[in-house]
Amino acid sequence: RAVFGTHVRLHGYSYAKAMEEGNNAAFIRFAGIFTGATIAFWGVVTPTELGFWHDFIRIIQCLLQVMVYMIIAGYVNDKVTLYRIDNLKAIFKDGNSSVAMIEFATFVATGLVFGASQSGGGSFDENAVWFLVGQIMLAVSVFVYGYCHDHNGPMVKQMHENIGNNNMSYAFSLSGFIISVGVVSHVVIKNVEQPLFAFFALLVWFLVTFTFQFMVNRLIIPKKDLWKMTVQTSTNQPVTGAGLLQGIMFLASAVIITVFN
């Protein structure tokens, strides 16, 4: 808390003050950092045969890396993924829970990537490389998501407008997608020495995701478009439950491929 609290204070905000005032967005963001850091340690806390002190030093090193990577991930999310939005201002001053949800998902996905790189006892260099690859994958995936939502207009403009206007339906959907990308990345990194399996995992994820979307749109709510139900426009009010359902479907499709891991 001290490290991340100091980082926020350097920008003129305070976790303590925001939480005391009941700012939900601040709670969500901090919960994301805590969750992501916890997931990152999945591959670290397993004892090795090299002795207690070796494992202890490794845990301390990973702790420092995780803190740095989480701060960088938040910066990438702010300056690249949601470049039209000032994330910290939106969260701590405006109480925008949608922005906080996107950051929550980004921190969790980052933790999944780091945890996968550590599961095989990855070195500092390997962790750094996979972190960079993971951030690129997340950023590209979000832009693809934004394009699918608004393929007739400026890329991701609609995404930024919906998140900036605190559309929780859109945020739930996008957050589920981001975490699912983190889960898929986790599986691929752990099986990077088996490229055919990694490719198979990506293919299965794509096919299952498409199948879930098709089933909901054609079988459950055939008269509505689930994608459009998450978008806020001058003629359409978003349905929060629709975004939550879509986000869960993204997660479910990603979890399925972990069965083959």
Question: What does this protein look like?
Answer:
The protein has 261 residues and is mainly alpha-helical. The chain is 74% helix and 0% strand. The chain has eleven helices and no strands. Helix 4 runs antiparallel to helix 6 (97-118) and helix 6 (97-118) packs parallel to helix 9 (168-190). The longest helix is centred in the N-terminal third of the chain and has 30 residues, at 52-81. It is flat and about 60 Å long.
Low-pLDDT runs of 5+ residues are none
* Ends distance: 34 Å
- Gyration radius (Cα, Å) is 19 Å
Question: How would you characterize the largest beta sheet?
Answer: none
Strand residue content? under 5%
Give me a quick take on this structure:
The chain is an all-alpha fold and 261 residues long. It has eleven helices and no strands.
Characteristic terms for this protein:
single chain; flat; 11 helices; 261 residues
Outline the fold blueprint.
Blueprint: H1 2-9, H2 15-20, H3 24-40, H4 52-81, H5 87-93, H6 97-118, H7 124-149, H8 157-164, H9 168-190, H10 195-220, H11 240-258
